[in-house]
Fold:
Amino acid sequence: MKILLYSFVTKEFLYKTDNTLIKSSREFFIPVTVTALSVTPALVFRIDKSAKYVSAKFAHRYYSQMAVGLNLYPVNLIPLATDYKGNGYLPGSVAFTMDNTSFISEEMCPVKALFNRESGIELIFRTGSEIREFSAKDLPRKEELNSIIESSTINTTLKSGDLIYLELCAPVSVSAGDYVALDHISGSPVELFIR
Structure:
């Protein structure tokens, strides 16, 4: 299984490995190598069947379930491409494969709930004392998700069970002691404590 992360900031795809995904634990212990940490809220879509060279017109046939998620970035481990010194690691490779940095709610719900704009679906993102609300107009449209699937399947086959994380905002800095949560009125929340 792989995780495709669509960055809110760069509008590019990042691929994360399955060791980054965590469902049961709700704690993240900051490794000694991490000096700066940030988090992004995301909508998570599960791929139902293999997809390769999928047109946006037909992309809706490849997913039916969604959840909410959180993605952690060990900021100090994401060097610029110009910082590559030939040390054996490609820029960002350690940061995007770090254990337990992709969180997902325990339950998934039908995607129809998201794309039915009359449902009034809302998300509430909490980081420390900051609260940010996302209304239906802030969430991605079906056409955006279908376009992302089309673009990603040009070079990479998506398989059943793969996850697509669509970030909802730019990363927010967090530190030890912070409580982070993303509440979804149509499904179960995802929450974690930074230790």
